[in-house]
Amino acid sequence: MRFTLNGWRRIGIVVVSLWIIVLLAVTFTEYSIKSAGFFVVQNIPVGTVIDGNKVTLPDGKVITISEEEEFKLRLAKERNLTPWQIDWSEITSVPKVAEVRWQRLGLLVLFAPLIIWLFAEVAVLTVFWVRRGFVAGERRDS
């Protein structure tokens, strides 16, 4: 069976292309304005050491955090949370780094359109197959 690029498939290609462009634009916007969004997360820099109310950044700069922020960190440690499970947006004195959630972006950019496309192709081929059966039955009856 040979697939041709009829009008519907061309519209599908355009829609998928627009989908990819929009998702990449949203990701770039979230990353550039350093906001925590669906595709971008704000984390502390890798190599940051937290000891009590002192935070040592990878470049050697030491930051003193408030008692309230230290309490939040101690509470997270008591709950046995790993560093990536802590909501660092509440600790405002520690600088954050924007990181892209590549798996989430990849799944939505590539696999969502692929799965929808395959489902649509199978549905259309099934409808044509069933319709062809009715048309062939009408020809035999006449």
Q: How is this structure best summarized?
A:
By secondary structure, this protein is mostly helical.
3D structure, described in words:
There is one protein chain. This protein is mainly α and 142 residues long. The chain folds into two domains: 1-43 and 97-126, no CATH class; 45-95, no CATH class. It has three helices and five strands, in the order αββββαβα. It has helices at residues 7-32, 67-78, 102-141; strands at 40-43, 49-51, 54-56, 62-64, 97-100. Helix 1 packs antiparallel against helix 3. The mean pLDDT is 83.
Mean pLDDT: 83
**Rg to the nearest angstrom?**
26 Å
Number of strands: 5
* Cα separation of the termini: 29 Å
**What number of domains?**
2
* Proportion of strand residues: 5-15%
Number of helices: 3
The parts where pLDDT drops under 50 for at least 5 residues are: none
Q: Give the overall silhouette.
A: elongated
User: What is the H/E order?
Assistant: HEEEEHEH
Order the strands across the largest sheet as they lie in space.
Answer: 2-3-4
Instruction: Give helix % range.
Output: 40-55%
Helix and strand content put the structural class at: mainly alpha
